[in-house]
Specification:
- The protein has 30 helices and 34 strands.
- The chain is extended.
- α2 packs antiparallel against α5, α6 runs antiparallel to α10 and α15 packs antiparallel against α16.
- The protein has an 8-stranded mixed beta barrel with strand order 26-27-29-30-31-32-33-34, surrounded by 4 helices.
- It is an alpha+beta fold and 936 residues long.
């Protein structure tokens, strides 16, 4: 009978849940069922979670406990360890004797004289909805396992009821939001002005965010570098006059504001809950407006930012905007953006039409003025003819010259005007068609730019001319011809045409002409079932040539390369310069790969001899990628792209390599692109790490400094070698922000070690060419030293030997700035470049670092030993410090010490290590001693 009653109650509760009964009434049925089932229980209470993390009474029996209604009862998780355990484990706990268990809240046990206690979690799919408490007032409940399971069954029904209520609430909220966006979209579609659209947007933003203080700032559609405050919500705390006035008063440049710029560039909304805690905020402007929190949303249409919509909370009003509110508000703004874009476009078109109309009116006024002047000067014919720069002559109805001006005679090669008078027009130009008795003006009424006039010596020149009839009393009495010599213009047109299709440096066909010829070649090959090939050629280490010898030298080399390529390929081939050091060759009418290989071999043969530029011999290697039609593509773009992809495969090998395109090459190119994309995120996601390689005074057995070396710990690929990602950073320009981070992090770490007592250490940081050429590099380094508190003398900047040869004057200026501030400059990889003593003497250098290539192959009587000894002597004579890199054996270390070089670094002492490992191994007193002991 008891089981049947329970099943009946559960069925009834299930039915009530499915009828969407109000939650409180639903849970009341649950508590009633539990209290009826467990007759020994004196109190049943359901407690629901609050925002502060506590649980408050919702429904229960009895409704008043110890003089307080249930909704005034809260569960303190710090005191009630039993409730806390149930909440964390999601498991039912029954305590038959509270005197034997310390977990329940002792205050409640004592107040209510609770002897036994049952606590159950209300949960569904790992989500906790609340807690259920059953307890007595002095007489233990003495519950059986069956009774506990019965209560759990009812509690599960309560979980289903609460979950259904939450789902229903979410659905109602989503429907409400969707309806609101539909209403907003409908109202926006009926907006005929920008003001109406923005007012509609502000109305719905107030509904969502609960504040009327919304505004809009739009980018000027004509002057796009300007952004102006445009509209303020009608319900705002400010008046629009005060709002505009305050912007002018604080001189707010919205386009330069850091916060606005962030939103515009990222196209993402920005919420600043407390403007006093964010350094990007314009504090003066926020103080003037009384702003405490700031939410700025981008107004984006078709991928273009039109402006921003800021919503603010003023002093004393701050409640904060939830994530859901912000998302819905951005949806309102996104809905508004399309309407605003259309209205702005319409306004812009109206403005352009008004401007063009004004221009046309002005031109008409000017034209009317000119016509009036011409009429006024009609009687001054002689003066006009003699002073006009264009040629003018008149013809009677028989085609004979009746008058001409000096300019005509001069351009036509006659000594005087009189020589032309009476001659037929055929002396000057030929008549094309028409009737001999008809006036010329009846056939030619506009400029003819293809015509040629003949000089006295019968040579011709191009002219632009117009023939107009001469009328008197309504009758045509003759014609007047006005012309100008356009020889110079024709020459300019030919020059422009040449520039449009040929590379200005090498005079080879450019990309445009190549595409045209290749397109024609593809069409021909398709019709005649023939093959063709595209070769994409790139010069190896051309950047090194530019860096070493300068861009003028590089340009001369490119011209020579273009000439040799033209000699190497068949006459019907087209050699084109794509830009930089890249060339493309189009080979038509080939039989197969063998024909292409022969051309490549001829190219490599022509490249085998050195190029002589300004008296310097230089050998040039190349990398070639090849694509074939139709196997590797049927369009111009596909063939060039695939040849380019194959060229990158050739780049992986040293000099004069070529590869035919294969489909899997795209995968490797895709991997490089993926790596490049990941590198953009690496700095922001803290994936970059600095390792430090100790620099040792071998004679004293001490660590004197550390070289900072960049590492990339990719979250999926693990440690990526610097040789794989540093070239990408150089090509993309990411090396600049990454380099700034390396300097700052190295200085911060060294300062931390100094504060731990290791004050004898310095740190060396490598600078690439792009980093060193920054105009504000000195300022950035100075700011880093100021922020970290590190003294300048402990920072050493390393540049390569060839860097000092570029932009000598600028390099010298930057190096002196660092020297004057206390920062030392080291020359890295010394001995591998082309610097001379004359250069070294004029630069403020502190240290020479011997390149590891000389150290690793060192032998007492070998060539590298002599070079190394020479570098050490050179450093001593110039009073410079010297450090040897790449020391890997005891013999190398002993040789260097014997020659007077005690400063070393290399794998013999340590590979690059993380900061924590450096501390353990080298910064404790006995660390280096243990390392060097075997060598001694």
């Amino acid at each position: 009978m008891s089981d049947q009653t329970r099943y009946s109650r559960l069925a009834n509760i299930t039915k009530l849940i499915n009828t969407n009964l109000e939650l409180r009434e639903m849970l009341t049925h649950v508590t009633t069922a539990i209290s009826d089932e467990i007759v020994q229980c004196d109190s049943v209470g359901i407690y629901l979670p609050q925002e502060d993390g506590s649980f408050r009474g919702f429904v229960g029996k009895p409704e008043v406990i110890n003089g307080m209604t249930l909704d005034r009862h809260t569960i303190d998780m710090e005191q009630d360890l039993l409730a806390k355990e149930v909440m964390e484990t999601r498991k039912t706990i029954y305590i038959p004797d509270t005197s034997r268990d310390s977990r329940p809240d002792a205050r409640a046990v004592e107040a209510f004289q609770i002897k036994s206690l049952l606590v159950l979690p209300i949960s569904h799919e790992d989500e906790l909805f609340g807690l259920v408490f059953l307890f007595d007032y002095g007489i233990p409940m003495d519950l059986s396992e069956c009774e506990i399971q019965s209560v759990e069954a009812y509690v599960n029904m309560a979980a289903v009821a609460i979950n259904n209520a939450k789902i229903l609430s979410r659905k109602e909220t989503l429907l409400s939001q969707k309806q609101m966006l539909l209403d907003a979209s409908r109202e926006l579609s009926m907006s005929s002005t920008l003001e109406e659209a923005l007012d509609t947007c502000f109305h719905y933003l107030e509904k969502v965010l609960g504040t009327p203080n919304a505004a809009s700032h739009l980018i000027d559609p004509v002057a796009e570098e300007v952004m102006n405050p445009v509209r303020l919500s009608r319900q705002s705390t400010w008046s629009e006059e005060d709002w505009i006035g305050t912007h002018k008063k604080v001189h707010a440049d919205l386009r330069a504001d850091s916060v606005m710029t962030f939103v515009i560039d990222s196209k993402e909304p920005l919420y600043i809950e407390d403007v006093c805690k964010d350094d990007r905020v314009n504090r003066v402007a926020c103080s003037s407006f009384g702003i405490e929190s700031l939410f700025i949303m981008p107004l984006v249409a078709a991928g273009k930012v039109l402006g921003v919509v800021p919503v603010v909370e003023l002093r004393g009003e701050r409640r904060g905007f939830s994530s859901a509110q912000r998302q819905l508000a951005q949806s309102v703004v996104d809905t508004t953006a399309g309407t605003v874009a259309n209205l702005l476009y319409t306004e812009k078109q109206d403005l352009i039409i008004r401007e063009r109309t004004a221009e046309i009116q002005k031109k008409n006024d000017e034209l009317n003025h000119v016509i009036s002047e011409l009429k006024r000067l009609r009687d001054e014919k002689e003066l006009i003819l003699n002073s006009a720069g264009e040629g003018i002559f008149g013809l009677d109805l028989s085609g004979r010259i009746t008058f001409c001006n000096p300019a005509s005679a001069r351009m036509l090669g006659y000594d005087s005007v009189e020589e032309l008078i009476g001659k037929p027009y055929s002396y000057i130009f030929k008549r094309r068609g028409g009737h001999d008795d008809a006036p010329l003006s009846s056939e030619r009424k506009q400029y003819d730019t293809e015509e040629k006039f003949f000089r006295k010596d019968n040579t011709s020149f191009p002219v632009e001319y117009v023939i107009s009839s001469i009328e008197k009393d309504g009758k045509v009495t003759g014609d007047v011809v006005t012309f100008k010599d356009i020889t110079r213009r024709k020459q300019m047109e030919e020059q422009i045409k040449h520039q449009a299709y040929y590379d200005s440096l090498t005079n080879l066909p450019n990309r445009v002409l190549l595409n045209d010829r290749l397109t024609q070649g593809i069409n021909y090959s398709r019709l005649h079932n023939e093959k063709l090939a595209v070769l994409f050629l790139d010069l190896d280490r051309f950047k090194y040539v530019n860096d070493t010898h300068g861009h003028t030298f590089g340009d001369l080399l490119l011209k020579e390369v273009g000439g040799r390529l033209g000699e190497a390929v068949p006459a019907e081939a087209t050699v084109s310069r794509q830009g930089g050091d890249e060339f493309t060759i189009f080979l038509p009418n080939i039989q197969g790969k063998e024909d292409v290989v022969k051309v490549v071999e001829r190219i490599n043969h022509h490249f085998s001899a050195p190029f002589v530029i300004n008296g310097h011999e230089i050998y040039v290697k190349n990398s070639i990628g090849i694509s074939l039609y139709p196997e590797d593509g049927e369009t111009t773009d596909d063939l060039v792209k695939n040849a380019d992809t194959a060229m990158y495969k050739s780049k992986e090998f040293s000099g004069d390599n070529f590869h035919f395109y294969k489909a899997d090459m795209d995968d490797r190119l895709y991997q490089r692109i993926q790596l490049e994309t990941a590198l953009y995120k690496a700095l922001d996601q803290n994936e970059l790490e600095i390792f430090y390689q100790p620099q040792i005074d071998y004679k004293k057995g001490t660590v004197t400094g550390l070289e900072a070396l960049l590492r990339w710990n990719h979250p999926h690929e693990g440690m990526i070698p610097p040789c794989d990602f540093l070239p990408i950073a150089e090509d993309t320009g990411l090396i600049v922000p990454i380099g700034e981070w390396v300097i700052k992090e190295s200085c911060r770490q060294l300062k931390e070690w100094h504060e731990q007592g290791y004050t004898n250490l310095d740190v060396s940081v490598n600078l690439t060419v792009r980093e060193f050429e920054q105009a504000d590099l000195f300022t950035k380094v100075k700011n880093v030293l100021s922020e970290t508190g590190l003294e300048a003398r402990f920072l050493k900047l390393e540049i390569t030997e060839n860097q000092i040869l570029k932009d000598t004057e600028g390099t010298l200026t930057r190096m002196r700035e660092f020297k004057d501030s206390g920062v030392d400059i080291s020359i890295d990889d010394f001995g591998t470049g082309y610097s001379s003593l004359a250069y070294l003497k004029q630069f403020p250098i502190h240290t020479l670092k011997i390149d590891k290539s000389f150290v690793q192959d060192i032998s007492p009587n070998g060539e590298n030993a002599s070079i190394t000894n020479t570098i050490i002597d050179l450093a001593k004579n110039m009073e410079l410090d010297v450090i040897a890199e790449g020391v890997e054996t005891l013999e190398q270390a002993e040789f260097l010490v014997s020659k007077g070089c005690c400063q070393m670094q290399g794998f013999y002492f340590s590979k690059p290590l993380s900061a924590s490992v450096v501390e353990k191994r080298f910064l404790r007193e006995d660390g280096l001693k243990e390392l060097l002991e075997p060598a001694r």
